[in-house]
Design a protein that fits this description.
By secondary structure, this protein is an alpha+beta fold. The chain contains nine helices and 14 strands.
C-alpha cells in the first residue's frame, strides 16, 4: 500500500483516478474534469464527471512548487560554481540562470539532477573518417589490447574532428595522441569543482563533493533537503546529427517530416561520463519533441506526467532510482510512434494504461532502446534486482489498477 510523505498525506481514502488526474491538472482544470473511475486492462469504463479532491490537488501543487524552488536554488549554485570554474579554465563554460526552462539542468528524480556543463573552444564538428583502436591509462600509456568496441551510444572524439579548436584542447591534461579522453577531462573538471566549492561563497546553501561514486557529484542543501547533482562536461554539437542516430526509420507516421527536421536541427551532445568513450546525448531534441506532443489536442503529456507521478511515488521511489524520468520519456516516444493517430490519445484512461504496459514490458525484459539510437539498451547495466522489484509492482497495478491511499 502506498503512503504519501507526511506533509502531503491526505486524510481520507482516494481512488487511483483522483490520484492520476490530480497529478497533472492545474487549479483552473479542477472545477469540472473527466475522472476515470476504475481502469480495467480488458474492458475500460468511460470516464465520468467529478470534482477533484482538494487534498490531493494541494499535494500536487505543493510538490510542483517544491521541485520548482529546488531547481531555482540549484541553478543559482550551479551558476556560481561554473562561473568560478570558467575563470580558472576557459575550456569550461559558465551556466547562466534562467527564469524559464534551463536546458543544462535535467530533473531525473526529485533529488537527482543531471547538470551538463558545456565545453568551450570546439566548433565545426565532422564525423571521424578512420577507425582505430585506442585505450590509454590516465598516465598516457597505451594499453596493449583493446578492451571493447564503443557501444551504440558511445564514440571516440579526436580534437581534429573540429575545424576550430582552442590550443588548450591539445594539452596533455586532456589529450592523448590526438584523442580528447573523457577520463582526463573529468580529472581536470573534478579538481576545478573542488576548488570552486572552496572559493565560492554561497550563502544559505551547503555544497559538498560526493567522493563515493564515479564521475563528479555534488550535494547541495536546499530548503527541502539535500539534492544530488551529477555534473557532466558536454561537447555541444548543434550543427549536425549523429550518424549513429539512424532516425527516423522508414514507414513511420509520427512525428511528421517537418517536425523531424526541426528536431534534428538541434543536433546532439557528447558527454564525458566514462573513461574512454564519449556518450551521445539528445537532451535538446528530446525536450523539443516533448514540448510539442499535443498539438492535435491529445493527452500524451498528461499521460506522461501521470506515469512519472506514479513512478516516483509508488513504483520506483528513491534518491537514485533505477528508472528515471529520462527512461519514461523513451517509453512515451516509443508508444507515440506505435500509436501515431490522434484518436489513440483522446481517452486518458486507455492511453495511460498503454504507457504502463509498455513500461512493464521494458522493465520486465530489462530492455529499453534509446528512441534515436535504436541499437542501444538503456537498461543494460541497470540493477536487475531493482528492475524485477519494479516489474512486480507494475504487474500488480495492471492486474488491479486501483490504489487506496491512507
Amino acid at each position: 500500500m502506498y503512503t504519501f510523505p507526511e506533509k502531503f498525506r491526505p486524510q481520507r481514502r482516494t481512488s487511483l483516478a483522483t490520484l492520476l488526474t490530480s497529478a497533472v491538472c492545474t487549479e483552473r482544470q479542477a472545477e469540472n474534469i473527466a475522472v476515470p473511475l476504475r481502469i480495467d486492462q480488458e474492458a475500460m469504463k468511460s470516464p465520468t464527471e467529478g470534482n477533484l479532491d482538494d487534498c490531493l490537488l494541494n499535494k500536487v501543487d505543493l510538490r510542483r512548487q517544491w521541485i520548482s524552488q529546488m531547481v531555482e536554488e540549484v541553478q543559482k549554485v550551479v551558476h556560481h560554481l561554473t562561473t568560478e570554474i570558467s575563470h580558472q579554465d576557459i575550456r569550461f563554460q559558465a551556466i547562466p540562470c534562467s527564469d524559464t526552462y534551463n536546458e543544462n539542468i535535467k530533473v531525473l528524480a526529485p533529488t537527482h539532477f543531471l547538470v551538463t556543463v558545456p565545453l568551450r573552444g570546439l566548433a565545426g564538428y565532422r564525423e571521424a573518417r578512420q577507425k582505430r583502436w585506442r585505450y590509454y591509462t590516465l598516465q598516457g600509456g597505451r594499453l596493449p589490447c583493446p578492451l571493447r568496441d564503443p557501444e551504440a551510444l558511445q564514440q571516440w572524439l579526436e580534437v581534429e574532428q573540429f575545424l576550430k579548436n582552442l590550443w588548450q584542447w591539445h594539452e596533455a591534461d586532456v589529450n592523448i595522441e590526438g584523442d580528447i579522453v573523457p577520463a582526463r577531462v573529468l580529472q581536470v573538471f573534478r579538481k576545478l569543482v573542488e576548488n570552486a566549492i572552496e572559493t565560492c561563497h554561497l550563502p544559505g546553501n551547503e555544497v559538498s563533493m560526493l567522493m563515493d561514486r564515479p564521475g563528479v557529484w555534488v550535494a547541495v542543501e536546499t530548503f527541502a533537503g539535500p539534492v544530488e547533482l551529477e555534473l557532466i562536461p558536454s561537447v555541444e554539437i548543434p550543427t549536425s546529427w549523429s550518424k549513429k542516430a539512424r532516425w527516423p526509420p522508414c514507414l513511420r507516421r509520427w512525428p511528421s517530416a517537418e517536425r523531424v527536421q526541426c528536431i534534428k536541427s538541434f543536433g546532439f551532445s557528447l558527454l564525458a561520463c566514462s573513461n574512454y568513450h564519449w556518450q551521445l546525448s539528445f537532451l535538446r531534441a528530446e525536450q523539443v519533441l516533448l514540448e510539442q506532443l499535443d498539438e492535435d489536442g491529445g493527452c500524451r503529456r498528461k499521460c506522461f506526467q501521470a506515469l512519472r507521478q506514479m513512478k516516483e511515488d509508488v513504483w520506483c521511489p528513491g534518491k537514485r532510482p533505477v528508472i528515471t524520468s529520462h527512461h519514461l520519456q523513451m517509453v512515451l516516444f516509443w508508444t507515440c510512434e506505435k500509436y501515431p493517430h490522434p484518436k489513440d490519445w483522446r481517452i486518458f484512461s486507455k492511453a495511460f494504461l498503454r504507457l504502463v504496459r509498455k513500461l512493464h514490458k521494458c522493465v520486465s525484459q530489462h530492455f529499453l532502446k534509446h528512441y534515436f539510437v535504436r541499437k542501444s539498451n538503456l537498461l543494460r547495466y541497470a540493477n536487475s534486482g531493482e528492475l524485477d522489484a519494479m516489474a512486480q509492482k507494475l504487474a500488480f497495478f495492471l492486474k488491479n489498477p486501483e490504489i487506496t491511499l491512507s
